[in-house]
From TrEMBL:
<dbReference type="Pfam" id="PF04909">
    <property type="entry name" value="Amidohydro_2"/>
</dbReference>
<dbReference type="InterPro" id="IPR032465">
    <property type="entry name" value="ACMSD"/>
</dbReference>
<dbReference type="InterPro" id="IPR006680">
    <property type="entry name" value="Amidohydro-rel"/>
</dbReference>
<protein>
    <submittedName>
        <fullName>Amidohydrolase</fullName>
    </submittedName>
</protein>
<keyword id="KW-0456">Lyase</keyword>
<dbReference type="InterPro" id="IPR032466">
    <property type="entry name" value="Metal_Hydrolase"/>
</dbReference>
<feature type="domain" description="Amidohydrolase-related">
    <location>
        <begin position="4"/>
        <end position="306"/>
    </location>
</feature>
Amino acid sequence: MKKIDGHLHLVKTIAGLNGKGRLNALGDGKAIWDDGTVIQLIPKGSGDDSFTAEAAMELMKKAGVEKAVLLQGSLNGYQNYYSYQTIKKYPEHFIGAFSVDPFADNAMAIVKRHVEDLGFRAIKFEISEGGGLHGYHSEKPFRLDTDAKVGQIFHYLADYPGFTVTVDYGSSDQISYQPEAIANLAARYPEMDFVVCHLSFPSADHLNRLKAALELFKSKQNIWTDLSAIQDIIGETDFPYPKCREAVALAKQVLGAKRLIWGTDSPWSATFNSYENLANWLEASQLFNQEELEDVLYNNADRVYFKESAVKAAAEAADPALTR
């Protein structure tokens, strides 16, 4: 069965930033935060201090994954330009989103460069308190649907119908948790597509919280949620992840299979569970019939991220900085 990994990260250069400080490579796939926390960022055998497109494609090929969506995050550091280079080099395998800190002085110039020059048709906001913008902008909590700086970006993107906005807002115990903001933005910008990462950070012990968030999205047909990293979030390593199955069953009940996008959040998630297991668990879960599986594993991501306008923009993009 064809698969698109709807949530993948490449790491050309480790450049992580969050409340723990900067992330520095140690080798053998490990990295250390400035506060002394050591993590295994890259699965063993997939890179010493990087996770390249070629390393990703090796894992994808073994697991029968045809294409992937390249997203950015503070854990690895934004890999915008490497994503651009990868999409140009392997257009049959990759599409991607860029990220920007909306509070940077040159934020709008960065946004315009990535949309107009580099051809991106998706943006990722990682605003979580644990690993995103709220982790290093804690002096000023903000909402995506009311903040003036973020609003500038949305006003600009409104000129690009079909643009995809992907959001990681963290767990419900973080100030960054904003399902209401996504519902408001989806209503305000009906020609944009919105993807909530990580199934809105489910807790196996508090599924009513997940249901409340999904009910907000239910009536907005331009909101999807990806299923990446829920094994890490719920804390499961026993395939085929029965607690994750329960959370996804609820999402299927509320949103339906056509609003769910499979993904892995590799490379980090593939250090807790093998990429192959992450690729195959939904089939093993017996949650979906054949048609539903085709939607969750391939069709939905293809429709949201690999839409014709996005593929065409990426194909036509050429960095003017390289032609001067």
